[in-house]
Amino acid sequence: MPKDRKQMQVRCLVGHNFKTREDGEKKYISGYFAVFGQNYELWPGATESIDPHAFDGALSDDIRALCDHETRLVLGRNKAGTLTLCVDERGLWGEIEVNQNDSDAMNLYYRVQRGDVNQCSFGFDILEEETEHRPDGSVHWLIKKVKLYEVSVVTFPAYTDTSVSARKADYEAIQKRQLDHKRAEVKKRLEAIRC
């Protein structure tokens, strides 16, 4: 994987509903921000999934919970004790303690409660991955280790253009290296025949 990629990656989940709950006077939003073994389609013929150990060691970092990846809409933070994150056999689960004095947070709480907003995303850097080139010409990446920056409750889950562009650049570079390698092999064989 090229190490010169500067853009933080964003991946989104569809169909993994968030829930609200109350415990005494406190309000919470909770759900899965990432699910292991689920294929995320980047574009036709290119997918990726998350290894069950991808978040090992990542949850002790300073991580924020945001709304729609907006850094001005901080809902919680693990270092402040208002965001709880843990990994189980299914994926990365999180719970945000809602600040009831924050109108943006309360608006989101009620939108999640009504089911108007129920999807999620997370922002990270890829530290380690495996690439599988399949016989049908497709490619699959298995994300093995990440640095996690944020998790978000989102209105429209979708890959950002920068994330897809970075992946496509990786894919095109890999394809070029494979083609160059094949050409070099053919050239070597031809030279051996000429001798």
SSE blueprint and pairings:
Layout: E1 9-13, E2 19-23, E3 26-35, E4 40-43, E5 46-50, E6 64-67, E7 70-77, E8 83-87, E9 91-97, H1 103-114, E10 119-133, E11 139-154, H2 161-194
Parallel strand pairs: 5-11, 6-11
Antiparallel strand pairs: 1-10, 2-3, 3-9, 4-5, 6-7, 8-9, 10-11
Summarize this structure as a short list of keywords or feature phrases.
seven-stranded mixed beta sheet; 195 residues; 43% strand
Structure description:
- With 195 residues, the protein is of the alpha+beta class.
- It has one domain.
- The protein has helices at 103-114, 161-194, and strands at residues 9-13, 19-23, 26-35, 40-43, 46-50, 64-67, 70-77, 83-87, 91-97, 119-133, 139-154.
- The strands form two sheets. Strands 1, 4, 5, 6, 7, 10 and 11 form a seven-stranded mixed beta sheet that branches. The protein has a four-stranded antiparallel beta sheet with strand order 2-3-9-8, covered by helices on one side.
- The longest helix has 34 residues, at 161-194.
- The relative contact order is 0.22.
- Residues 1-6 and 159-165 have low confidence and may be disordered.
Q: How many domains in all?
A: 1
Query: What structural class do you assign from the helix and strand content?
Result: alpha+beta
Strand count? 11
Biggest sheet character: 7 strands, mixed
| SSE string | EEEEEEEEEHEEH
Measured as a percent range, the helix fraction is 10-25%
Mean pLDDT: 83
Counting DSSP H or I runs of 4 or more residues, the number of helices is 2
The Cα radius of gyration reads: 21 Å
Q: Oligomeric state of the chains?
A: single chain
Terminal Cα span: 38 Å
Low-confidence stretches: 1-6, 159-165
Strand content: 35-45%
- From the spread of the alpha carbons, the general shape counts as elongated
